[in-house]
User: Which sequence fits this backbone?
């Protein structure tokens, strides 16, 4: 019995210390959605139980290694003689069973909570493709390459994919859902912290999977309304200074996913680099040569398959005409032009 | 002719034959005889050159004949496809994908015919009778039998194990390549496509390696433990091993055909669109699967019908229970991964719309079929390892196994539950939301039999007299590492927390912990433990402990940091990551820990390889085990037990005076 008492005391003390310590660790990224709170609470509960069981098993393991090791002069000694203990076996079958069922029950509660619909939720359509995200606000009739969300309002994302499976994950929001060709999937998020985040594709989707990032801006309701209005009545390129146009082009390139395949520093990637592109002479896959002027660039954005540069696969998506506004395209060309 | 002359001759003939073959094929297929890219010809010439070298070493090697058969099968497949397309007037007549697929299938068949595992069966179809083959081929050195179709379960066990270690080395090397790329953020030396190829091939070759490893343990040990002289179906056993070899070769060949970019999971529709390498990968897995299914048939039959007198099911060594549970999963599950991959290949070749929505297919169908095998597969990988832990602990604790029946039945419970949980891989897949809660409950149940095993192991150690040679150290780390893998599972099984963790590095860390705790550490424990039995020699204890120490430290560090990075938002399968997540430092540590594991395994394998020839002669029963195989001389004679034994007691009654597990008929008492 003395071994049992000793190891129980060690485990009790050690697990209390370890659970306390584990609670001080910031396991997760910052919480930026209402859904994150119950998820983090549940995860914290998991960590408590994991820590306790970790200490329990390792405590007995290490204690046995020390206390029951074969000492000098015990070469022929043997262990105690018992084959098992049915009541103990039943005990450690039933207690874990109750524990995991309890966690499954909590999981059900939290799942129902975070996936519930709200009367005033806003719908945003999400379209994923290799390797970019685009968004549409059906009520306002606005399309965008960045996801603007008003803080504190539940948003229902209805998601489709145009090619292969992708997965919508914003670690700060905690929840994720695949976008699947052929079906529409749904994800509900209530952002509650203003800031800029990234949606990161979490399902391996081919060559540029790692670079499949989209920008999310969680802003105040007023700022959101302003942005939406601005999108409805697009600004004219001529109203912006050349520098503003280049800056806009840079952020558009980032948000539309262009940079997943086109480098801006001359390095080779899935598509041709943009550095030094403007005004250069291009050799096409059919052998003809063209000069990369404004008209060529615009055509290559809207109809990428019309002129494919020699040595490249010609796999650029063909629907940028739907997601990019005239201003976006002007800005992109201005940005490419600036990359000498 | 002398060996040197034969080697040179074989090499020259092989290289010339490869180059000529390549050129002739190009001419037949209507291409210019000389290609601008010389590397395919060099690769083929080197392959045939190596086959020539093998032939030069020993003309009767089954492996050399099998490889020649494989090359011939490929040639026939390419030509047949070309001719069929030509006759049917299809344009173009030479289309690489269908030609290589037919070549891969016929190549595998050619390998099996060449290696000789079907010879007896073919003769039977002609009404001939063939005797079972015993001992090495007549007039040949003894080692020749390890490179050909041999029917002895111990030879086949060694073939499985050594192939498993070779594949472990290959898959580990792939891991080190992409792990080094990940040391720092940014693209360093791999392109995105190469990175994706390496992570994919690392995964599937590791799985192949594990299947070979458990195949080795089960084939070598189970007949010995049961008191049988061989497996129930020796020819099927030989076929089961050799059919895995062309499967593995096809998987490795994928590297040279554009690789593949889908991960080992091969999710459609990405896999329907990927490069030619995907066909090689998927056909390779399909053919490899025969090995699992046929090996399982054989093992189940052996366990059910060939036990020694007196060995009731609950008096079998506990490892046999684990092997039985694993085989039941292999027998019933493997077909599903084969099916899911076969349908991808058919969709690629004939546009059959299984998965692509534009062809009327369903994307989620693939995942359901795939995980119906690939989740239970995880239990195929770990159950034998957990059986090794249960088998070795009583030996080194010198006391009975705690709760034998509970441990035995928990393996069966895991095998059955394993088939009810597959959709927990699909919580974020967009499948019907009403399925998520039931699969959360069923998945949680797996924790219960797993917990029974842990507590029973602790009960086995409690108040024992523990000693710590290398196998015991590996057993203890197995428990500690599998504990990490097990405990980090429930947050993945709980849907709300899984919504964050899914497809993150947390999963990567969790999965590697279950594989290392459930297979890699117990596998090495078993290798060190039965090494004196298999080779008759002892490994170097100090090197064994060095191997153990660095693998343990390396692995603990690696898996914990992987999980930590995943919680912070690190996604799986990324060639490049965002330093803003704050995980760059973690990746540094993970890479260093990975190298530590890799180098420690190299030390371990070198130790075993060297000791097999030069180690000191081992004592008859160095661990004082009660298991019957230790009553035999080492290495074990051709026919195992000269006389049958009878089971008269419990297997693990260590330390109980006068208790006996088995009694040989000739000698009345011999206790452990």
Assistant:
């Amino acid at each position: 019995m003395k071994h049992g008492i000793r190891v129980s005391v060690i485990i009790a003390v050690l697990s209390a210390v370890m659970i306390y310590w584990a609670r001080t660790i910031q396991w997760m990224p910052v919480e930026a959605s209402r859904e994150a709170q119950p998820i983090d609470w549940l995860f914290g509960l998991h960590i408590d139980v994991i820590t306790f069981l970790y200490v329990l098993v390792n405590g007995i393991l290490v204690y046995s290694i020390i206390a029951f090791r074969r000492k000098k002069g015990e070469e022929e000694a043997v262990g105690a003689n018992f084959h098992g203990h049915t009541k103990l076996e039943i005990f450690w079958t039933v207690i874990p069973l109750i524990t995991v069922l309890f966690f499954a029950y909590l999981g059900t509660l939290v799942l129902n909570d975070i996936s519930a619909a709200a009367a005033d939720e806003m719908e945003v359509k999400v379209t994923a493709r290799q390797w970019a995200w685009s968004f549409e606000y059906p009520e306002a009739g606005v399309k965008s390459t960045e996801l603007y969300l008003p803080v504190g309002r539940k948003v229902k994302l209805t998601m489709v994919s145009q090619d292969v499976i992708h997965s919508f994950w914003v670690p700060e929001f905690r929840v994720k859902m695949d976008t699947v060709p052929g079906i529409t999937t749904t994800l509900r998020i209530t952002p509650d912290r203003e800031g800029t985040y990234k949606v990161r594709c979490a399902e391996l989707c081919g060559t540029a999977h790692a670079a499949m990032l989209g920008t999310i801006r969680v802003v105040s309701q007023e700022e959101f309304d302003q942005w939406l209005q601005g999108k409805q009545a697009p600004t004219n390129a001529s109203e912006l200074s050349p520098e503003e146009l280049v800056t806009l082009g840079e952020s558009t390139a980032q948000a539309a996913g262009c940079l997943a395949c086109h480098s801006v520093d001359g390095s080779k990637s899935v598509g041709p680099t943009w550095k030094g592109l403007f005004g250069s002479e291009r050799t096409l896959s059919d052998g003809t040569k063209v000069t990369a002027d404004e008209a060529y660039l615009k055509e290559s954005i809207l109809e990428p398959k019309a002129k494919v540069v020699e040595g490249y696969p010609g796999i650029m998506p063909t629907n940028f005409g739907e997601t990019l506004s005239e201003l976006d395209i002007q800005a992109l060309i201005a940005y490419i032009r600036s990359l000498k | 002719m002398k060996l040197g002359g034969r080697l040179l001759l074989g090499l020259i003939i092989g290289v010339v034959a490869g180059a000529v073959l390549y050129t002739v094929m190009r001419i037949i297929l209507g291409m210019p005889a000389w290609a601008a890219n010389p590397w395919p010809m060099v690769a083929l010439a080197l392959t045939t050159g190596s086959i020539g070298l093998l032939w030069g070493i020993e003309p009767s090697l089954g492996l050399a004949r099998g490889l020649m058969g494989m090359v011939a099968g490929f040639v026939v497949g390419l030509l047949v496809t070309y001719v069929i397309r030509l006759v049917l007037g299809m344009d173009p007549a030479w289309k690489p994908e269908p030609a290589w697929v037919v070549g891969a299938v016929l190549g595998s068949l050619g390998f099996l015919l060449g290696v000789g595992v079907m010879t007896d069966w073919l003769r039977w179809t002609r009404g001939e009778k063939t005797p079972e083959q015993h001992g090495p081929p007549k007039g040949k050195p003894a080692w020749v039998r390890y490179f050909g179709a041999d029917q002895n379960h111990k030879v086949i066990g060694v073939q499985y194990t050594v192939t498993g270690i070779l594949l472990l080395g290959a898959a580990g090397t792939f891991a080190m390549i992409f792990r080094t790329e990940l040391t720092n953020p940014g693209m360093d030396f791999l392109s995105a496509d190469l990175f994706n190829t390496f992570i994919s091939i690392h995964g599937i070759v590791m799985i192949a390696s594990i299947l070979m490893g458990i195949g080795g343990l089960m084939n070598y040990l189970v007949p010995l433990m049961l008191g049988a002289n061989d497996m129930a179906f020796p020819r099927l056993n030989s076929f089961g091993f050799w059919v895995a070899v062309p499967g593995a070769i096809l998987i490795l060949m994928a590297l040279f055909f554009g690789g593949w970019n889908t991960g080992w999971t091969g999710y459609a529709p990405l896999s329907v669109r990927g490069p030619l390498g995907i066909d090689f990968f998927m056909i390779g897995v399909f053919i490899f699967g025969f090995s699992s299914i046929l090996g399982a048939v054989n093992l189940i039959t052996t366990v059910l019908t060939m036990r020694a007198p007196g060995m009731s099911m609950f008096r079998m060594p506990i490892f046999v229970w684990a092997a039985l549970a694993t085989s039941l999963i292999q027998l019933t599950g493997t077909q599903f991964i084969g099916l899911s991959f076969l349908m991808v290949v058919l969709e690629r070749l004939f546009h059959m719309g299984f998965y692509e929505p534009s062809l009327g297919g369903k994307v989620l169908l693939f995942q359901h079929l795939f995980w119906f095998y690939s989740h239970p597969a995880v239990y195929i990988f770990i159950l034998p390892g957990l059986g090794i832990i249960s088998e070795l602990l009583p030996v080194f604790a010198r006391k009975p196994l705690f709760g034998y029946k509970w441990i035995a039945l928990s393996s069966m419970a895991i095998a059955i539950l394993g088939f009810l949980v597959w959709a927990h891989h699909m919580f974020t897949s967009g499948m019907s939301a009403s399925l998520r809660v039931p699969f959360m409950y069923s998945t949680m149940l797996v924790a219960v039999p797993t917990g029974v095993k842990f507590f029973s192991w602790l009960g086995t150690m409690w108040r024992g007299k523990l000693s710590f040679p290398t196998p015991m150290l590996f057993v203890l780390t197995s428990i500690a590492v599998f504990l990490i893998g097990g405990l980090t599972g429930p947050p993945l099984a709980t849907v709300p927390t899984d919504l964050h963790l899914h497809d993150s590095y947390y999963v990567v860390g969790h999965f590697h912990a279950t594989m290392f705790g459930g297979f890699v550490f117990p596998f090495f424990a078993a290798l060190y433990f039965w090494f004196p039995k298999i080779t008759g020699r002892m490994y170097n204890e100090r090197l064994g402990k060095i191997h153990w120490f660095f693998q343990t430290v390396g692995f603990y560090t690696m898996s914990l940091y992987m999980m930590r990075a995943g919680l912070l938002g690190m996604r799986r399968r990324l060639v490049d990551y965002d330093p803003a997540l704050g995980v760059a430092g973690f990746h540094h540590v993970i890479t260093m820990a990975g190298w530590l594991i890799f180098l420690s395994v190299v030390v371990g394998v070198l130790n075993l390889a060297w000791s097999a020839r030069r180690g000191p002669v081992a004592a008859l029963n160095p661990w004082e085990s009660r298991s019957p195989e230790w009553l035999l001389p080492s290495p074990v004679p051709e026919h195992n037990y000269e006389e049958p034994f009878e089971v008269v007691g419990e297997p693990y009654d260590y330390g109980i005076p006068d208790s006996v597990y088995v009694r040989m008929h000739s000698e009345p008492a011999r206790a452990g």
Observations:
- Chain B is about 65% helix and 0% strand.
- Residues 157 and 216 of chain B are 4 Å apart (CA to CA).
- The longest helix of chain B spans residues 192-226.
- Chain B touches chain A through 91 residues (CB under 8 Å).
